[in-house]
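User: Predict structure, ligand iron/sulfur cluster.
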Amino acid sequence: MTEMVLDLVEIKKKAQIDWNSNWKLKEALISYGDGKHLDKIAHKIAKEVADKIDCTKCANCCRVMSPQITSTEVETILEVYEGDENTFFKTLKPMGDDFEFRSRPCQFLKDGLCSVYSHRPYDCQSYPHLHQPNFIEGMDGFIENYGVCPIVFNTLNRLRDEIKSISRK
Ligand code: SF4
Ligand code: SF4
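Assistant: Predicted complex:
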């Protein structure tokens, strides 16, 4: 079994090297057949990996990504926002009907932790989205996040091993 990699610098570097290989993995997963069977395997691997990683010691997603925020979620954050409301609105960039934060790292990341944790957007709660149904539909996003999130990185590598071992049988 591939060893877990947690070092963010190594993960970012490997993401460039593995870029083509990850798209090949997507092709292999598409031809793998029944999506429900793939979901079962991928979700099991993703959970095993996530259980071994402490997000409070990472927070890389909060540093380099910006979540999608609905207008309802903007209101939810405002319930605990300590600053001026207009100042907060200036930190938001409209994205269609939703918003994202203009700057990164996220303004709510304090000492490596989310300071609005109980009021954080769904996109933050769900990230890195590996548990969502129809794994293959999320693959483009997972490949984009492979160099950012250790959970995604290690899950895709274990999945790659799994596919190889199945095709050898
Ligand atoms: S709101 Fe919280 S969980 Fe979401 S990006 Fe900001 S710090 Fe991270
Ligand atoms: S979800 Fe991924 S990138 Fe975000 S803190 Fe957890 S391991 Fe790090």
